[in-house]
Amino acid sequence: MDYQIIIIKQSKSYDISDIVGGISWSDNVESLGMEFCFSVGVSDEIYFSKFVIDVGDMVLFRKESEIFRGIIVNKTISDTTEQKFKAYDFCWYLNKSKLIKQFNGINAGEAIKQLCSEMNIKLGKIATMKSNISHIYYDKTVSDIIDDILEQETAETAKIYIKEMRGDSFYIFEKGTLFIKPIYQTAFNISAFPVTNAIGSFDREWSIEDMKNAVKIVSASEKSVRILGEAQHEQNIQKYGLLQEIETVDEKDFNKAQNIAQNKLEQYNKVGETFHVDLLGDDTTRAGRMITIDNEKIDVSGDFFIKNCNHTVSGGVHTMSMELEKI
Is the pTM for the entire model greater than 0.70? Predict the structure, then answer.
């Protein structure tokens, strides 16, 4: 097979590509980490490989370049002919481990770097951030703490950030900044072509379920509630009805409240448009990227954000299914 799967046990590498069956991998911007699944045949034949793969083993998946690196967390034997394995990249540790951590006015990006350092997670590149974090965390996972920090940054700057593992390094980058042009090549002697030229099944959806056209920022105590900032969009209120969000901030952040209200309104005051599509596969395609589609046949044109992406390799054919958000 073109793809290579390597198991690492105690610093020793074992290429198992020839005995691997179904392969799939997926990621989602709503959750931290990529999932990789594969199966291995089992047989009593004397010449069949008896190599044992265990939970806790590291797995590398690559073609021309590395696609996935992570830890096997689940092994299933359902019959005598096949074993199934599930692996996650190293963000799995951020999802599973809790820390006690206090930040006293530290920059958001530096706070995230400290968390990764304590978890021995190698850093790639962390986007430059502006907000300062003052909070004590004691009952949350590391990934939940990072999410909370990024939410504070988004509330203050209106920028949304994507977090992911690439190989053994952790990255955070701004949403909408990383464009890709996925291609597919049916054979080595045939020119590659953009996968968006050959769209399979698809569906589009428009929704106001997540719309907020009015936002109030309040400071609350047991005795009183004080409005610190508010923003609303009169035209959309008249068109769709009042869809109001109320958020609480510390009294000490009153000077940021109006800015937070405007940013929240900008973020949620919209008709959501999503697009589900099946395409031929490209190894560089994953959640968090931007893709441009210009297809007259299905009347779709514009830049789309990849919310989630599921890859499958079966019978030598690589396909992928994506959920896209119109930008």
Answer: yes
